[in-house]
TrEMBL record:
Region called Disordered, residue ranges: 33-67
Protein name (record): Uncharacterized protein
Phylogenetic classification of the source organism: Eukaryota, Metazoa, Spiralia, Gnathifera, Rotifera
Bias kind Polar residues: ranges: 34-45
Superkingdom of source: Eukaryota
Species assigned in the record: Adineta ricciae
Chain intervals with Low complexity compositional bias: 46-59
Amino acid sequence: MQSRPDLIGTDEMRGQQKRSYIGFEKFEEEYNHETSMNNAAGNAKSNSTSPRQPTRTSSFQNSPSRSYDDSQFTLQHLCTPMLSSIYSEIVTFWFKVQWLIYDDNVRETFLVLKSNVDGYLPIQTALDQKSFVNSKSRLHNVPECLLIQTEFHSKTTFLPNLFISFDHLLHKNIRLKESSFQGQLIAILCKLNERGSKLMFYKHLQRNTWHIYFNTPEFPSEYYANVLSDDEASQLESIAEENDSGNFNDVRRLEYPLSLLTTHPIIYVYITRKISDAN
């Protein structure tokens, strides 16, 4: 990444009716919009005029130099190069931003979960129970992005919620002021092996589809992405939805790749949304 995209804080979000974006999200929506327009124009015009290429704004201009053909993109699915760029932006840029501002101006990048529960615990329950490092400190801001990390040798399996509340993270005055915001899950990063390989589950919010991306730095040619099957996506959504409703969800019978949700460490990526926009 050569430069960071401008971040839009919650103060500006409150003063705007349009959606706010962090990095690649705006590219996704602009691409979808322009592809739709190009398809419509193509039906009305002859093939003698070549359709214009989608405008690349946001941080994709500075993404890793991986070549790709725009024709590979579809409205329904994201291809491997695009998911590679999304993954790269998260781990090379988002992982370096200190999103969390605590008392005494202490700043952190990750919220690290910590619990002695020998079993499963939804992330929201962990937050409500203050089962995280720095549990005695309170945030002075609503983070644009919340990176939730599990400990390497935790005996607790933390399962995702589709949406999370910031109530138990914020100072009271901030909580009252920012009550219209919540976190929305967009990605889950799991460790594959000791050689640094990782797997990312990524949710394309505009299409409500879950994708999977394999990052294998030792074999770059084996980078691979796909859309989760209907059954896998249904299982993943079911786990998160059951957790949102407060019901226990047993994941012991999950098969690969969803079984990686029971391993450590895992990083859950949440972005801040106005409640009216997220639901």
